[in-house]
User: Fold this.
Amino acid sequence: MPITPQELIANLGDLPPLPQVASQVLRVSADPDATAEDLRKVISMDQALTSQILKISNSAMFGMMREVTTLTQAIMALGFSTIKSVVIASSAKNLYHRGAVGLEERLIWEHALVSALASRAFARSLRFPRVEEAFIGGLLHDIGKSVMGVKFPERYGALLRTVYNEQGTSLDLELETFGFDHTMVGEALVSRWNLAPGLQAAVRWHHDPSEAPDGLRELPAIVALGNQLALEEKVGIGDPSHLQGATTQAMAILRLSEEALADFKEGIRDAIEQDKSMIAEF
Ligand SMILES: [Fe+2]
Ligand SMILES: [Fe+2]
Assistant:
């Protein structure tokens, strides 16, 4: 039996906090009265973040037509919700890099980024209203793996290597070894960070979207599709066929036929191929 969330938190001890700038950005971008200037002030307190936002604004990911040189331009050009995604991406990157070491670390981060791009592309194709939420969901879906990598470096590193070599699935092995899996750990983290309920559901239920609470199943379903596509593109650890169950559930939730899914995937693969150029610079 999986352990309770309370036992899980007790087992994990302190969870990494969301960096202060990121939580302020979340607060400002959720405030309907906030202005671009308010957002600029918060972000400009962090020099590394500022230069990262400028770099990303000018990368292929957002396809800007002209060069963005100031934070104000970046905010105007990208909009609040995209800036929010970039800030969370940069926080997530630091977190992913504190997790599992070496090969696994890099693979997990690239998998997060490609899943985010794919989830966002699926959201667009499906006319899901909150495409940036799909991006963040894709980005954070496996964040529990990093937390486990930080908390249990030896045991979790060994587990990932087994999954990598034997092409098994991490979920079953995690449950067997720890009594909980990366989706539970991830949910504990993002609920601690007060992220939107849909995002919490996406992190918790990306392997079982139909188990998500009523009204919150679409985002986990979209992220499930993004997750599988990333593995199909050979970005990440694991065999995409192990995610077929999640994909079948996602198709039912999103009312997607085999043909429609195949059509979407074709377009999305091309888009990702172009976006991939920015993976190295992120
Ligand atoms: Fe996962
Ligand atoms: Fe994943």
Summary: The radius of gyration is 18 Å.
